[in-house]
Amino acid sequence: MSKTNEGKKRNRSTAAINEIASAPVMGITTEGSMPQKKFYRSRAHCNPLSFNENFEYPTRPDLMDWTEDHYPEHPSLVKDDSKAEDISFFHASSMAVRPDVLDVGCGFGGLTLALSTALPECTILGLEIRPKVTEYVRLRIIAQRKQHPGQYQNCSVLRTNAMKYLPNYFAKSSLEKMFICFPDPHFKRKNHPRRIISERLLTEYAFLLKPHVGRLYCITDVKDLHAWHVDKCDTHPLFRKLTEQEMDDDPCVTLMKSTTEEGKKVTREGKFGHEMYYAVYRRMNDDEATSVSAECFFEKGQFGVEIVE
């Protein structure tokens, strides 16, 4: 067999494997029962730039009714019998329910669920690109709601590509916190554009986070990737790193180290001798940002741009 035919055969085989890996798991777990993780295993990561499945998404954030599929019994939906038939009241209250805390790449949902109880006044949304894992988290949340009536109504999960569609779901200055926990390091230099922390995406995150109060949380067990995160965030004019004391005082830092699956592995096994490296950044007010001009834009250190001579 020629090398060309071998290559075609290998590509067809790989495509078939990818199709099977991305197929949702149906009928294994009934809604209300706790899913077993062994049935929802998937590849650890995928290439978000070439993942071109036909995701459904709104053309603008105000067209998304989050109470329909995600938060049908959200705590803010007041149960008032006198207004039960008032359609305008119901529409106004349901449209007021919008996520303000994102767990980007939520994995199997440990942090998403932990944030639900730690931040009861917030609305938590886990974002995940892998269909099997998304289904696992969805069933896990439903099971927790059934086992603990009145709890976990403020958290949900959405399958989407966070590197492409965030502005379709979330309006300007609508988010209070964004968590990026143990993302794919994409070690090869040619794959660095796939990293979820970059100059372009940080500007997008700054657009979505509330000025002054918005926070961006990053954690990884890869030291080089942590250095990348710090470098990109430090050079962005709209983010300021919290001090060690400020991070110690933030309970969400403890949660992202102790409730994520990767965080548990590092703690439990000392996986490969790795430690956890993290940083938290505050979204600065626009008037606090470093002014940018045509003269200073390409200076070394601005926006991660480095002039190679």
TrEMBL record:
The active site is at D184. It holds the Pfam family Methyltransf_4. S-adenosyl-L-methionine binds at G105, E128, I129, N161, A162, C181, T260, E261, E262. One of its GO terms (cellular component) is nucleus. It is found in: Nucleus. Pathway: tRNA modification; N(7)-methylguanine-tRNA biosynthesis. InterPro entries: SAM-dependent_MTases_sf, Trm8_euk, tRNA_(Gua-N-7)_MeTrfase_Trmb. It comes from the Eukaryota. PROSITE patterns: SAM_MT_TRMB. The keyword tRNA-binding applies. Belongs to the class I-like SAM-binding methyltransferase superfamily. TrmB family. Catalyzes the formation of N(7)-methylguanine at position 46 (m7G46) in tRNA. This is tRNA (guanine-N(7)-)-methyltransferase. It comes from Cyclostephanos tholiformis.
